[in-house]
Amino acid sequence: MDKELYDVIIIGGGPTGLFASFYAGLRDLKVKIIDSLPQLGGQLMELYPDKYIYDIGGLPKILARDLVANLEEQAAYSNPTICLEETASTLERLPDCFALTTDKTVHYSKTILLTSGIGSFQPRKLNVPGAADYDGKNLHYKVKDINHFKDSNVLVLGGGDSALDWSLMLEEVAKNVTICHRKEQFTAHEMTVQQLHNSKVQVKTPFGIKELVGNGESVHEVVIIGKDKSEHRIPVDHVIVNYGNVASLGPLKDWGLEMQKNSVVVNEKMETNIEGIYAAGDVCTHDGKVKLIAVGFGEVPIAISHIKTFIDPKSRVQPLHSTSIFESEK
Hints:
By secondary structure, the chain is α/β, with parallel strands linked by helices. 24% of the residues lie in helices and 29% in strands.
């Protein structure tokens, strides 16, 4: 059991949690990061390390794995203790701190910062007879290496940003790319939709998936069906499903936090309804909330600065600019 007391335990080692580690270092806080995954980076590393991220200020585009590598380097500024493959279970308030129990041990901290994104997640599966037989073969729910699809006929299923982003990226690698969506309109960013229509990607809307044709080892064709009951057969080497994720905050829901759907409610200070517990990023919600990585980055300085004043009421909420801090260290 690690009885060392930390200023803040960050639950979630994705982009928001990593940036929080860095910013906590700027505010001279002692940090521990806990994540249930075997590596830092959250969904970016678990689901699409080779996908480009476009909506972060100052970075026209960056591979997810490169963004995570940069964030890990930045997070090291606070010299955090990092605990991977640990799942938070119960939280107890002691007289002067919190005792956080995981599936491995108990951790102690003056405050808690939730940056766990959508929580534990599983890709939403393709609901077609026999689909499970091809899961992990040439039916994919995540893309770890885009070069795996080189010179292949690829069918992408879905209509959101991930589906369109993968389709556009695969256009440069695969022999042929088709995207199929059950609705007429895509739900991705408008610019991405325009890029798709200007590309060589074949667009099939609105079509549902009727049947996978294969030999049990791999899918050879996918039969799609339109609203008018017309059917088309698409030859494939690979099928990529981007139907989103089934997510759950798990035990966090039992901590007495005010919830709205699957999100933790916070105020303008990023405080939850429990004193000493804060949240930032996709795990939380407030009036006008937009769930993007860039928004999580913006919420971190607010949360950490108020954590600082919670621990030390004499400190200022408004910190020095980072340039001033780094200059003073030279």
